[in-house]
Amino acid sequence: MSISSSLITNLTVWRNPQGAEENWKGYEHQYTHLPSLKTISISEAVYALIGVAALVESAVNAAFVLFSLPFLYISDQASKLPIERLQSSACAALWCAANLVLNIGVSNITTNEETVRDYTINTFQTFMKKFS
Q: 3-state DSSP call for residue 57?
């Protein structure tokens, strides 16, 4: 998990009225109150900052991937960690963009990167089946 992904998780747990995803998963359709205007405003600003940090982190991780390529001759595990970190930070950048929109009108936002990735993959597969 990247640094920006960890920051998003912590911010979202703080922002959600019911906290971590484990507290409300399965009860998504039950009405819960929105966070206060102060919480939404702070979260909006911090999501934007984390989004910029995630883009910078993605660029740094992409450089690490490029630097690890020569070491693939020694071991095929050399680029495993940099690629995982790049995937996580790139996911975090998109996750921040989505949370900037969802923050305004959704009471609980997903807090786990794995859930976000699964949802994104399932949505993409449904989209591809519909239009292929």
A: helix
CA 122: distance to chain centroid?
16
Cβ-contact 64, 82 below 8 angstroms: yes
Which is higher by pLDDT, 132 or 7? Answer: 7
- Residue 51 makes CB contacts below 8 A (sequence gap 6+) with 93, 96, 97, 100
**Which segment of 29-33, 45-49, 104-108, 119-123 scores lowest on mean pLDDT?**
29-33
Residue 28 lies in a domain: no
**Structural domain range at position 75:** 3-23+33-131
* pTM of structure: 0.84
Torsion of CA 97, 103, 104, 106, to 10 degrees: 120
- Of 94, 97, 95, 70, which Cα lies nearest the Cα of 82? 70
